[in-house]
Amino acid sequence: MFYHILKKEFKLIFRDIHALLVLFIMPLVFILIMSIALKNSYSQTIETKLKVAIVTEQNKDIDELLKTLNQNPYFDISLRKESSSKALIYEDNFDFVVNIDSDFKTKIDKNDKNFTILIFSKPEVKSEFYYILKSEIVKSISKSITKEFYIEAKIDAKNLDNLDNLIQNEYLFKNQKESIKLNSTQQSVPAWLVFSMFFILIPISNTYINEKNFGTIQRIKSINTPLYLTLFGKILPYFIINQIQLFVMLLVGRFVIPLFNIEALSLDINIFLLLLCSFSISFAAICFALLIANISKTTEEATSIGGLINIIFAALAGVMVPKFIMPQFMQTIGEFSPMSWGLESFIEIMVRGGDFNDIKHYLFYLIVFGTICLFFSNLLLKKQEN
């Protein structure tokens, strides 16, 4: 009997070809768009530098300042004379305009109270870039003045020029997984994979509610088939589809994304733990979809309620906006999102090089969540049968 339930379920799934396409095309498009959009944020280099105009008169000190500032990989800095700051920003497309007196060293040396350095930018420029530029200007001027002091005092300052090179950043991975290369693809694939796995809700609610309305479930029950077998017959086909989603998205990240000049997904990961995460996320997503399908009377109601809840889950989990830039209270709320448990477990394996101890609590939360949803689905189904 179970074979026939599965056969019926697969036939229904492949009839709803549009819902199936959404499950594969939606994450593919999001992975591609977000990998491109976040390329500079997670890359070790920046492709498009911020344009900065220094407005002042040229002299030796200004030349030295420009040379030092241009060593920063985030900025492309050039000199402009007697130009309108607004015209430079809105007509010449500079991101920042810096107004500085050409005799800035003298004024700093004399502690001139009227001396200021003005930085102009468009309102939408991220404040982080302003602080980086401000810090870079302060560092460059301080370095230049300190260097002169060392020379006058006859102190060997040869290491001062190489001070930046003496400070290096290295990522610290869990369990010595140092071969994982961080990039936007490594960040985007887990996020949109979890999102798409939870959207299994669309085909499940379509088939399940139609079966309820056409009396298919009642007819299956009339031949003494237990309800749990009916539910399990629902879970298994969609569980397989979720695993195909995982396989396809890994291939997309590995082989398709590099075609758009974006770094490929690194698959130097523990496949067993990755599958364990995928199984747990799939179980939670399918059971949640069954609960929504049992609560709803129509497919429109199910897709509206379920879709809205999924989007809220995704927003709180950090799928759409990275969690680390959210306020602390939102990060705390996000820890209760099932998508957050799925996303964190994937990131532990695919980005941080974690092991089972790092993901076991996330897997536990997902399985408990799925079991609770399945319990209430079974309860509602029994109630509807009576």
From TrEMBL:
The lineage of its organism: Bacteria, Pseudomonadati, Campylobacterota, Epsilonproteobacteria, Campylobacterales. The chain crosses the membrane at residues 20-38, 189-209, 235-257, 269-293, 305-325, 362-381. It comes from the Bacteria. One of its GO terms (cellular component) is plasma membrane. Its main location: membrane. It comes from Aliarcobacter trophiarum LMG 25534. This is ABC transporter. One of its GO terms (molecular function) is ABC-type transporter activity. Residues 153-384 form the ABC transmembrane type-2 domain. It is a multi-pass membrane protein. It is found in: Cell membrane. Keywords: Cell membrane, Membrane, Transmembrane, Transmembrane helix, Transport. Belongs to the ABC-2 integral membrane protein family.
